[in-house]
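Dear Dr. H.,

I hope your travels went smoothly. While you were away I took the liberty of generating a structure for the chain from your last submission, since the lab meeting agenda had it listed for discussion. I wanted you to have the full record in hand beforehand rather than looking at slides cold. The sequence, exactly as received, is reproduced here:
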Amino acid sequence: MSATQATAQALADGWVVAQRNLIKIKRVPEILVFVLISPIMFVLLFAYVFGGAINPGGAVNYKEWLIAGIFAQTVVFGATFTGAGLAEDMQKGIIDRFRSLPMSHSAVLVGRTTSDVVYNVLSLAIMALTGLLVGWRIREGAMHALIGFALLLLFAYAISWVMAYVGLLVPSVDVINNASFIVIMPLTFVSNAFVPTSSFSGVLQTIVEWNPVSALTQASREQFGNTGGVPPSDVWPMQHPEAYVLIWVVLILVAFVPLSVRQYRRTTAR
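The corresponding predicted structure, in token form, is as follows:
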């Protein structure tokens, strides 16, 4: 089989697995409820509980400035569904059933990461509607808004491959949830998602400025027109956030797609 045929088969098989994961929503609707309710809670919590205490500067309203950060946090957290889903399939023996089928080794991973993109699209849609209700507005055109949403989904897709690798290393739902929380919580909170970069100092400010989540948030704010005249830091990632995000997406995919496929083969060969 040629490389082109192998890729086509992997994509076709992956789409079948993705459909299987999405059909699961009908069987366990609580999953969808959690995916949709959690973003609403974050928007309302930060907009009304912390909104009066935080001033990002410039002429922007905090509620409007905040939404891009909530978007970034939610899609990164949403990527953990990949690891948890794989760990659950391992525990229930579903992966063993896939081994007996004439399908590509990467199909399970492609299907899982693809279906999680759908979850993130639903989350972004709900958050956008909630944001509009609390005062968020898109100040740039529709094309800029689409670019902002595309960057969020691309970065989340890359992170989902990291979570896939971790989920195969630690095939336990409880462990993957705890491990993801330990890594993703500081990654999102030690960033400019909720407070301006200027509120940090010293080494911590440098970490925030080079944090890819900060670049993702800054890029989204710029594309949505929500910067409000607040100047970004003069470091390269904040001056060119879109390019910095794309660099991270490429690096993560190049590293973790083959790692995940290799680990999947090792896991299913036991």
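Two observations you may find useful: The mean pLDDT is 81. The chain has one domain: 8-268.

With kind regards,
E. W.
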